[in-house]
Amino acid sequence: MKESMKKIFTTVVTSIIIALLAVNAQMPADLSKQNTISTSILQEQVVLNTDRNLYAASEPIRFMATYFNNSGDKDLDWSKVLYVELIRPDGVAQAQGKYTLGKQGTSGTIVIPSKTLSGTYYLKAYTKWMRNFPVDQYAYKKIKVVNATNFNVSSFETEVEEGINLTDETWEENNQVILSTDKEIYAQREGVKLIISQSLQTPEEFDYQVSVIKKGTKKFTSLTPVAQQKQVAKQAAYLPEISGLTLSGQVVATNSREAVSGADVHLSLLNHQSYFGSFKSKNDGSFYFNFPLSNDEYDFFISAHKDNMELNIKLDNDFCQRKVNIETEAFSILPEEKELIEQLIVDAQLNKIYEKELTRKKENLEDTTTISFYGTPKRVVLMSDYIELPALEEFLLEIIPEVYVNYNKGIPEIKPSKFSTFQNYPFLVMVDNIPLTNISEFLNAKPKDLDRIELIDKSYIIGDMKYSGVINAISKERDMASVELPENSMFFNFQLYANDKEPFNASDYFSDNSQIPDRRYCLYWNPYLDLNSENKAEIDFSTSDLKGTYEVVVKIISKYNRKVSYAITEFSVE
Questions:
Q1: pTM value?
Q2: From the CB of residue 283, how many other CB atoms can be counted at a distance below 10 Å?
């Protein structure tokens, strides 16, 4: 019976996923005429772990997020993006990042801003689908931050929208996982060999994470939300990101504020030709764009057009904006922490200074060339190859016979000269990767301000939009050749995936960089430890310049009930 129900559930969810992926991978397609699905179909859960619990401002937090859902199908594809924030107890974000989410979960780093005040903070993690549920179902991890230059303790008043009660669940020590090092005492910058073996009857049912950290910086607890009865909306306001990061929003009429369906929404990546998306707004005015895998923040341009209507574009917030308040005890430094924290804040300053030196040595020149979203154009016309003509329309007539300018009731149109399958659809006309609906503005561009014109003179489909071809004029100064921007448009900055490079790498200290101080408090971090066929693992790492006692901590996480246990051993650096 259970197996039968599981098959039915898997079939239903698979059908939804197919519907989501239909039409084009640029965005989730219509799920229904109302663009909604039921929240009862699936629930997700994330468990957070970090390399340690005590940090200095400007340090990276290494985290691992284990992902679960209640489908009973481990191979079910659902959310592909995890949102991670470092927040104060009142929910105000100090740092934010987006990370690719796989079946195992994800791992990464999020850097504590240098101006963060000393205090208790939380890592918060969730998917876009989880935003349909109460915020106490998100994942939380409590950490302590100390600031070397500003030791004022963070304080704040809150207007509580959703209160969260979290309790510490103490891990149990697992004596079936055995840890041993080749020595008990090491010198500074000496190699360490760690051997991990386990005698669990079903080792494949667990995930293993390893951190080697300064003693006193780790707590062996997990935060568990106190169960609260909170109502969940039946219809999902947020669709799952099943194929990667999405941008969503709504088109509304400027005067009436009513939703506008059938508007052509265009999204362009500025200063790069690698991304362009088109979407026709749905019945409720909504639109969705799916982004390629890319890191860092970028400037985008978005526009909407329908007849001669005045439109407003409302973009959804990418991170959760609901106010929360976590009951947290007053920040304090325990007597046994005082010496460790004093050393930590000094070392953090040293690391910050020498991080710039390491980064400078590792920098490479980036390749600024990008492939256009339409790939290799059929023809590229360099303006410098021809005598200067005063008007772009004349240049098209003389040099680019594949297209011509047609006037329909006095309004110019770009048309393909030869037959096209989508002959009756418009040409996609662009300047610097920004689409123009007013062709008169395109023709006003001065040939002397353009570097080249790229052309595709055959039928072209982007999302659910059809074009009879593409013509893209690239200006010399990337300033759109002084062409006026389309109406109903705006620029905005959007964070794609986190630039997940750690500030320090242990190997940077042991070659030509031997004079750079190595003040790491985390000597080794592996969120995905693989055991060999004998259920063992051998790990090599090096000590730093810091003397003292270190802990090797292996976290054992059940794939089924999410409980965490740990194994631990110690060694000294003298």
A1: 0.85
A2: 13
Q: DSSP character for 230?
A: -
In a domain, 310, yes or no: no
Q: β-strands 403-408, 411-416: how paired?
A: antiparallel
Pick from 27-36, 78-87, 147-156, 480-489: least confident: 27-36
Q: Are 470 and 460 in contact (CB under 8 A)?
A: yes
Label residue 355 by pLDDT band (50, 70, 90).
Answer: low
Q: Which residues form the domain of 540?
A: 41-230+329-364+499-573
Q: How many CB atoms lie within 10 A of CB 112?
A: 21
What 3-state DSSP class applies to 369?
coil
- Which pLDDT value is given to residue 298? 87
pLDDT for 300 equals 93
User: DSSP secondary structure string, 193-219?
Assistant: EEEEEE--S-GGGEEEEEEEEETTS--
Whether the pLDDT of residue 436 is over 90: the answer is: yes
Domain-embedded: residue 248: no
Share of the chain above pLDDT 70, in %: 83
524 and 470 share a domain? no
Whole-angstrom Cα distance, residue 445 to residue 265? 23
Pick the last residue of a domain from 451, 485, 519.
485
Contact 28, 288 (CB under 8 A): yes
Report how far residue 68's alpha carbon sits from residue 76's, in angstroms, rounded to the nearest whole number: 10
pLDDT 10s digits, 257-270: 999 999 999 999 88
pLDDT of residue 473: 95
Which range has the worst mean pLDDT, 6-15, 94-103, 199-208, 259-268? 6-15
Could you tell me if 551 and 512 lie in one domain? yes
pLDDT digits (tens, 9 = 90+) for 225-260: 665 556 787 888 888 998 899 999 999 999 999 999
Q: What pLDDT digit, counting tens, does each position of 499-558 carry? A: 765 544 455 444 445 677 788 889 999 998 888 888 899 999 999 889 999 999 999 888
Domain boundary among 485, 515, 532: 485
Q: Say how many domains are in the chain.
A: 2
Assigned domain for 490 exists: no
What SS3 state is found at 417? coil
CATH number of the domain that 411 lies in? 2.170.130.10
449 residue type, one letter: D
Shared domain check, 481 and 343? no
Q: Are residues 417 and 465 in the same domain?
A: yes
Cβ–Cβ < 8 Å for 107, 63: yes
Does 9 reside within a domain? no
Q: Do 471 and 403 form a contact (C-beta atoms < 8 A)?
A: yes
Instruction: Note whether 200 and 66 are same-domain residues.
Output: yes
Beta strands in 351-487 (DSSP E): 379-382, 403-408, 411-416, 428-431, 434-435, 450-456, 460-462, 465-467, 470-475
Strand order in the sheet with 276-280: 276-280, 264-269, 297-305, 489-495
Q: What is the distance between the alpha carbons of residues 413 and 393, in angstroms, rounded to a whole number?
A: 11
Same domain, 392 and 360: no
My answer on whether 130 and 220 are in the same domain is yes
Output the average pLDDT for the chain: 83
First to last CA, the chain: 62
Q: Which two tokens stand for residue 196?
A: 């991990």
